[in-house]
Structures are given as structure tokens and as C-alpha cells.
UniProtKB/TrEMBL annotation:
InterPro entries: MFS, MFS_dom, MFS_trans_sf
Keyword terms: Cell membrane, Membrane, Sugar transport, Transmembrane, Transmembrane helix, Transport
First-listed, main subcellular location of the protein, grouped into a coarse class: membrane
Cellular localization per UniProt: Cell membrane
Stated name of the protein: MFS transporter
Residue intervals of the Major facilitator superfamily (MFS) profile domain: 53-441
Organism from which the protein derives: Leifsonia virtsii
Domain of life: Bacteria
Iron keyword on record: no
Entry-linked Pfam families: MFS_1
Top-level taxonomy: Bacteria, Bacillati, Actinomycetota, Actinomycetes, Micrococcales
Amino acid sequence: MADQHGSFRDRFHAHSPSGGLCTIPLITNSIPNALTSRSGRPSPARYILSSRLLSGAFVSLVVSGIGISVTAPQITLFLVQQLHMSATVAGLYFLTNLAAPVAGYALGSLSDRLGSRLLVFRLSALAGFAGWTLMAVATQTWMPFAINIVLLGAAGAGAAQLQAAVRDELTVNPTPVDNQVVALIRMAMAIGWIVGPVIGAVAGAVWGLRPLLLGTGLTMLLSILPTLGAGAGAPPPSGSPSLDRPPALSAAERGRLTPLFVFTGIYVLIMCGETVKLAYLPLYMDGPLRLAAGLRGAVIGFQPLVEVALMPVAAKLADRFGIRPVLFAGAAMAVAAHCCYASADLFRAPVSALIAGQFLMAGVIATFGVLGITVAQRLEPSRVGMASSVFLSAFAVNAAVGGFVGSLGTSWLGVPHLFWISAAIAATGAVGLVVFDRYRPLSREKEEATERPDGRARPRSGRGCG
């Protein structure tokens, strides 16, 4: 692995604008125990720290993760308490997220053609800053709906372009632990979600919800800073799959995108209950359960804490057994998580059921968050930016579908029983995933390089990383 590590250092020095930045590889060499496993196998942290783009993407996602997680669990409270919407109307707000996939597809295709992932990311971050700032001063019921459609839908495409830039980097400079590198990058936003909900619950109670939204806008601006000096985040050079693409989609190519859209739709079914949870679990804890603000934030923040622990586990399991069984397990955990939320009032200590649900939901996000985007990018390897945007736009569609489900469920079944609907939808997605795998296998057999104890590479026998 010495040659591979050296190539990362050489490339880093070549792209560093100043000598000061070039000290990062020296730092990685000074703490080998932190960056290399005890078995001597390569650590994904080494590759992230030795790449300006990967390390910048990691820090940027931490910052934006904190900003979004501060606000997301509080947005329903903001709509109900500040703009005096009913819970049903507040749930319909999330339907405006249906505009996000359109913006994501357009911006993803734009980054494929411009060859600049980071430019599109920065434009998306500016849109997020403008959107959350305007949301903080909104006074009319219609304003959040319009802001979400026009600005925040485009802002959501930013993370997708960072993920596309990471995939391009790993295509040009592959590592023996690509799945684990992607897992660490994906963990960055989960790290933000560990502290964000607690900060949001407490700060919202102390300072109010409007300053909270303004703070989220500022974090969108701050998320740009770590990517400065990382280049354009360009696709791989000519001759690699990501660049050999026509300027526009033909009818045949649109048909070829069908598996990508189907897989994304399955992911929406499995994950849409997460939006229901973020919207109505805080109301349930604040209302019937009468939990303190700090405890409410801790319950929400417990999930991403577990995600951080489970994401590298999911990546290693995919390396060992393939992506298929890991995603199947994630889909099953989604059903079980919503059953925990729905039956919480049957327990003497309802919080214990909520925590169990949070643990299971962490497993869902750990599996699909790390491996789902890898499957999406493989389904459309010639348009990685577009594939990343389409798949990650599922978060916005989740919000729309979840908002609709929550709006109906809260008036029909009430809280927490509306989560039975989420469980049924997730079960439908799990069945769909099994059927999809029969026609487009989630795992694929291939030989990959693994490292011998002596540092030399050898082909791996058996299943690849999926």
C-alpha cells in the first residue's frame, strides 16, 4: 500500500495552493494507529485526510448536517406555533418537497455537463441560505410553501453533488476500501445530527424558533468554506465511464433510467416514515408524553449517534457478504422501527419503545445511506451526478409522502397510531426491494483488491463489495 499512499500524497501536494496545507499527509503519518487498523489493513480515514476534496466534503457535510438537524425536528412546531397552522395543514407543507426531485435532476444533469460538481454545490448552498433566511422572517401561511418550492428544493441538491464528487474521486483514485470511505463521508452528516436536535430543542425553547431558522441559513453559507481550494470537483477524465456521455437523453436512455427511478421509489417507500417521525414524534413527546425539551432532543439525537456507529459496520458487512443482504436487513428494520413508535403507548415507559425505534431506524439509514447511493450510481454509471441527485432527492420525496401520510394519519388514527401506516408502507417497500433484486441484482460478483499483511494486493475470492 505504500505506493497507493504515496500517490495520494503526491496528488495532494500537486493540488495544494500553499505549503501549509501540505502538512496534512505528515500528520497522517504521525498517527498511524488512528488511521490504520491493527491488522495493518488500510484505513479509510487515511484516504480522506490525504485528499483535499474528500476531507473538505466531510467537514462540509458535518456543518450542513448540524444546520439542518437543528431545524428539521422543529419545523412543524414553527408552522403550528408561529404561523398558527393546524397540524393537518402543517403536514401538507411537506408536499412542497415534490419540487426537489425536479431541481435535483436539473442540477445533477448540469453538473454532469459542466464538469464542476462543487460549483453546483455552492450555488445550492447559496439557495439554502436565502431560503432559510426568508423562512425566518415569514409572516404569512403561504410563504413557507413558496420558499420551499423555489429555494429549498434546489438547496437539497448540494449534498448530492458532494456525493457525486466523492464517487468521481474514487473512480480516478480507487482505494481497497471504497465502501468504507463512502461510509465515513456519509457519517459526516450523521455526526451533525447527533448534536443538532439537542441544540435545536433547547435553543428553540430559549431563544425562539425564528433565530433557529436564521442559524440554519448561516450554516449553509459556512458549509461552502471547507470546499474552497478543493478544485472544481470535476468528473473523471475522458475514457472513464462517467465522462463518456451524450449531451442529452434519447428515448432509449430515458428507458434505461427506469431501474434508477424504480429503486429510488422503493427507497421512498421504505424511508417516508422517517419524515412522519420527525414531524409528529416531537409533537407526541411535547403533548401527550410531556417530556422536557432536553429529553425530546436527546431521543431525536440518539438515532444519528447510533448511525455513526453502524455505518462502518454496514460497509464492512457489504464488503464481506455483498450489498443485497445488508439492504434486505435495513428494509426489515424500517418496518420494526415504525411498529415500535406505533405501540409506544402500550408500554409503561413509552420512551423505551421510542428509543428502540430510534435504534432500528438508525440501522435503516446506516444501510441505505451508505449503500443505497452506491447502487444508484451503478445503475447509471455514465451520469453519476444525475444519479446521485435523483437518489438523494428521495429525501425530499420522503418528506412529501411522509407529510401527506402524517396529515391523513393524525386526523384518522392520531399519534402515535399513525405510525402503523408508516410500517405498512415500509413493508410494501421491502417486498418491492426483493422483487427488484430478482431483475436487477443489488449485489454483483466481481474481483476486488484486498490487502495482504505484507502490504501487497491480491484478488479477493468470493463475493465483492456488492
